[in-house]
Fold this protein.
Amino acid sequence: MADGFAATPEPPYYAVIFTSQRGPGDQGYEAMAKAMWELAHQQPGCLGAETARGADGLGITVAYFTDEASIGAWKQNGQHLSAQRFGKERWYSHYELRVAKVERAYSGPEGRRG
Amino acid sequence: MADGFAATPEPPYYAVIFTSQRGPGDQGYEAMAKAMWELAHQQPGCLGAETARGADGLGITVAYFTDEASIGAWKQNGQHLSAQRFGKERWYSHYELRVAKVERAYSGPEGRRG
């Protein structure tokens, strides 16, 4: 698997799609984002994550989980709850969070995976 | 709805999550990406899209559709098929494409949407 990609298994599994617009200034964001990235990956049921943020401050992070219960546990993680509070108060001018069940997946360019 | 976000309705609907690693050089990518972005939005059943690509060339684009049939029609669109071919041959060192059914959605920081 190439760097930056989550090595997810055959579907079905879940995706948490978090699209966010950063406001100006760091305000502790980078350090917390790095900590949350590492913490998410240690979370039971986490299959990996992918993230990208452009120069305009719009970013998309997709975290993959085995099931809904794992997503619920991650949402309620104490350190993550703190990060969510900072996100609402300081970091994001807007965000959209969508929970979706992955039904099919392909990879390339070497060929279809599924 | 803030710039850069898709104004999606209440779930359920579908998300096509496309994570890709760009190779070096433009090779016609930017012009085609812009054309495909516009074409996708004109596609019947397309609810909008969100995209971000970091300085490392890793990008995530999520396009939202009302149903599976609309995704199938977009996949088979003639201009899109050409773009897919260029993507495999020239632009992407790796990509992952996942089709997922959005079950729940929230927005913020002003509050939960659903």
